[in-house]
Amino acid sequence: MTDVLHQAEAVAAPRVARTGRFTIAPWLYLAPALIILFVWIYLPLIQAGQLSFYQWNMLPTSTPRFVGLDNYRNLLTLPEMGIAVRNTVWYIVGLFPLSVIIPVAVAILTQELSGPLRNLYRSLIFVPMIVAPIVAAILWRWLLNEDYGLVNQVIAGLGFSKVGFLQDPKIALWTLVWMTGWKLIGFSTLLLSAANSTINPAYTEAARMDGASRWQIIRDIRLPLLAPTILLLSMMTILFGAQWSFVYINALTGGGPLQSTTNIFYLMWEYGFQTLSAGWSAAAGMLTFTAFGAIALVCLWLMKRLAVYDD
After folding, report:
1. Is 31 helix (H, G, I), strand (E, B) or coil?
2. Could you give all domains of the chain from N- to C-terminal order, each with its CATH number?
């Protein structure tokens, strides 16, 4: 028996030794992805950080001039930067009902649909998701035109005054929020419907047998188990909501009227490609990256603390 144990240990020892050695094969498999990640993410980030300390108009004949922290000081004192930050917050706040609250309600209320009704609802809510943003922008510009747009024709036909959806500073931002949210509702509903369908039916059946109402089932079972997806969509809305509006700002309003629709992402593009202030654009990008990076860490911490998983 002792000889058998010694032989087993002798066979196992080389295996342990082999597992402790460095093997290059996994890194070779990961190399293409790591190279792409470095070239397209980390290298541009490093270069943007370096450029933020220089003044340069991006012309090949000009030489970047080191200015230290002047770009950051100038940006933080510009009134238009304050307006852009405020509008960025309003974009995020305005998108929450369209990207989180309404999709949650739609996913829960339509879970029990079947047959043609289910297919119809899916078609109607998912169509905006497959429309290219620039195509959607052109479509909305025609529909919302103050003079001959279909929406204003209907409003005038009902006896009301025509609305300058893209011309009125008080309405333009919320118009772009609606356009962005109109595109996101389908995506959010898709994720929430998939998460809702994975909830174990035994939970709801047990709750019904105990006399729970439909609202109690939604409040105490469905919403807690949907929490990871809801928190994920909330984090995506906070981090990317204003960025998703860039196409509509660029195509429809150009940041106007009276800078009422500009945000930090459009301002970065404006500095970089309209005024050719590459240093300002890079500095604005680094400030945005730092702020949203901190927000992302807080969101991840909240997800770990508040998410409920079905174990």
Report:
1. helix
2. 1-51 (no CATH), 71-306 (1.10.3720.10)
pLDDT of residue 190: 85
The angle, 0 to 180 degrees and rounded to 10, between the axes of the packed helices 102-109 and 223-244 is: 140
Range list of H helices, the chain = 2-20, 25-37, 43-51, 70-77, 79-96, 102-109, 116-130, 133-143, 150-157, 172-197, 201-209, 214-217, 223-244, 246-248, 264-273, 278-306
The neighbouring-strand residues paired with 54 are 66
Nearest-angstrom CA–CA distance, 217 and 205: 10
d(CA 230, CA 233): 5
240-293 per-position pLDDT tens digit: 888 889 999 999 998 888 889 999 999 999 998 888 888 999 999 999 999 999
Question: What number of other Cβ atoms are within 10 A of residue 51's Cβ?
Answer: 23
Nearest-CA neighbor of 295 among 246, 242, 244? 242
* 42-77: pLDDT as tens digits: 999 999 999 999 998 888 788 888 998 999 998 889
Are 217 and 274 in contact by the 8 Å Cβ rule? The answer is no
Residue (of 308, 301, 287) closest to 88 by Cα position: 287
Name the residue type at position 123: S
Please enumerate in sequence order all residues whose Cβ is within 8 A of that of 12, keeping only pairs 6 or more positions apart, or say none. Answer: none
Mean pLDDT of the chain: 85
Q: Pick the closest to residue 264 from 70, 45, 89 (CA basis).
A: 89
